[in-house]
Amino acid sequence: MAGKIFKVALVLLVLGLLISILLPALGAARNTAAPDPYSEYLGTASQDRYFDPSVVGRWERPPGSFSAEKDQSARFAGRVEQRMSLSRAASDGGPMAEAMLAQASAPPQAAGLEAASEQNVGGGDPREIIYTATLNLAVENLASTLDYIRAYAKARGGHMEQQSSNMIRIRVPAATFDEVLEKLAGIGELRDKNIGAQDVTSQVRDIEIELKTATTSRDRLLALLEKAERTEDVIQIERELRRLNTQIDQVQGRLRYFKDQVSMSTITVVLNAKVPQEPTDPAMPFVWVDQLAFELLNPTRTPPSTPDLGDGVRIELPDGFVRHYQQDYITMALSSDGVGLKIIRHTNYDEADLDFWLGLVRTTLIDQMAIPVGEPVLDKLDGRWWGKSSTEIATLEGPKTVGAQPHRYLIGLVATDRYVYTVEAWGPDEALAKHRDAITQAMMTLRVR
Question: How far, in Å, are 214, 272, 413 from residue 396 at the CA level?
Answer without folding.
Answer: 82, 43, 8
